[in-house]
Amino acid sequence: MSLLDEIEPLKAEALAELEAAPDLPSLEQAKGAWIGPKGRFTGLMKQLGGLSKEERPLAGKAVNAAKVELESLLNSKRDALELASAMPSRATDFTLPGRRRRVGRLHPLTQVTEDIVKSFRKIGFVVADGPEVEDDYHCFDALNTPADHPARDMQDTFFLDSKDRLILRTHTSSVQIRVMEKQPPPVRIIVPGRVYRRDTADATHNPTFQQVEGLYVDKNVTVSDLKGTVEFVFRELMGKDTKIRFRPHYFSYTEPSFEIDFSSPLVKKMGKDWLEIAGCGMVHPKVFENVGYDPEEWTGWAFGFGIERIAMIRYAINDIRLFYENDVRFLRQF
Ligand code: DAH
Asked: Which of 6, 97, 178, 256 has the fewest beta carbons under 10 Å from its own?
C-alpha cells in the first residue's frame, strides 16, 4: 500500500478518536497519540522524505490537508469541552423563582404622600396638579402677595432665565389659583407636589421638597370645618393620640391665618410637646376676587404642609437630605 493510500484511513481513525474524547485530558491524550511529536500521523509525515520525486508533491499535499482537518477538529472539540466543563454538572432550570425575593419598593416620601391622599379621599377630596415652572402671577400676585414681600426676593426664589419672569414654584398654593380659574365652586382638592426654594441643603433644608396643599370652597365654610378636617387627617397619619392646636399667624392669601401645631407620642419622643407642622386659614376675599369667585357668596379654607416633615417625624429621621440621596441602605428600611 502506498503512503497516499494510508492517509485517508489513518485520518478517519484519528478523527473518530478525537471526536470520541469525553473530556479535555482524553482529548490532549488523543492529540499526542496522533499529531504529537511521536504521534502516528506525525510518523506518516516523516515518511514523506523517503518518497520519490513524483510521489512526494501529491502525498505531501494530501497529508497537509488531512493535518489541517485534524487540527481544526481538535480546536473545535477543545472549545466544546471547555464550555461543557464550565457548565454546572446538573441541569439548571432558569425558570424557577429565585430563593431570595428582593423586589423594589416605593420611596418613603411616595408612601407618605399616598397615605395623605388616601385619608383625604375618604372625606371627598380629589387630587389636583399644576406646573412646577410657574409665573409670578400664580405663585404670588393672585395669592395677594405684594411685590415687596420677602418671599419674592431673589434670595428665596429660583428665577428662570426667561423674558416672562418664569420661576420655580415656591409653594403648591399656586395650584389653588390654577384650579379656581378653571372651575366654578364648590372646590375640594388636595395638591401634592414638588416645590423649590433657594436654600442651602442642611439637615432640615433642601432646595427642593414636597408639599401638600388643600383647598375647600363652598357656602358657609368655617374655621371649625378646617380644624376638624386637619385633625382627622393628622390622626390618620400620625395615630389616634394626635392633638392639634391652632396659633394665629399671617399669610397673605388667608384671613384669619393660623399655624398648626401637633402633639403626639412621636413628638414626645423627640423631647417636645408641640411641633409646628402646617399653615392654614380662611381664603382671603382678594384671592376669590382674583379668580372671579364672589367673596360674598363663597367661603373657604386652605392649608399647606411639607411632606418631608411628616415623614421625618413618622420615621424618626433627622436629616432631610437622606430622602434625596437615594442610598439603598436607607431606602430598604421602608
Ligand atoms: N404656602 C405656605 C408655605 O409654603 C403654606 C400655606 C399656608 C398654604 C397657609 C396655605 C395656607 O394654603 O392657607 O409655607
From this structure: 97
CB 198 within 8 A of CB 158: yes
Give the pLDDT score at 149.
Answer: 81
Percent of the chain with pLDDT over 90: 71
pLDDT surpasses 80 at 68: yes
d(CA 316, CA 124): 30
Task: Give the residue, by CA position, lying nearest to ligand 1 atom 12.
Answer: 303
- The Cα diameter of the chain in Å comes to 124
> Are 282 and 311 spatial neighbours (Cβ–Cβ below 8 Å)?
no
How many residues are given for the chain? 334
Four-CA torsion 142, 148, 149, 150, nearest 10 degrees:
140
Ligand 1 centroid–CA 77 distance in Å is: 76
Domains of the chain, by residue range, sit at 3-86, 108-331
**pTM of the model as a whole:** 0.70
DSSP secondary structure string for all residues of 36-60: STT-HHHHHHHGGGGS-TTHHHHHH
Cβ atoms of 66 and 7 closer than 8 Å? yes
Q: Please give the Cα distance from 233 to 136 (Å, whole number).
A: 31
**pLDDT confidence tier of residue 1, bands split at 50, 70 and 90:** low
202 has a pLDDT exceeding 80 = yes
Ligand 1, residues at Cβ distance < 6 Å: 171, 173, 213, 251, 254, 279-281, 302-304
Phi, psi at residue 300, to the nearest 5°? Answer: -175, 165
Mutational pocket test of ligand 1: of 149, 253, 286, the residue with most ligand atoms within 8 Å of the beta carbon? 253
In angstroms, what is the span from residue 305 Cα to ligand 1's centroid?
7
User: Average of pLDDT values for 14-29?
Assistant: 91
User: Contact 75/35 with Cβ under 8 angstroms?
Assistant: no
| Helix residue ranges per DSSP H, 87-222 | 108-122, 136-139, 174-182
What is the CATH superfamily name and number for domain 108-331? Bira Bifunctional Protein; Domain 2 (3.30.930.10)
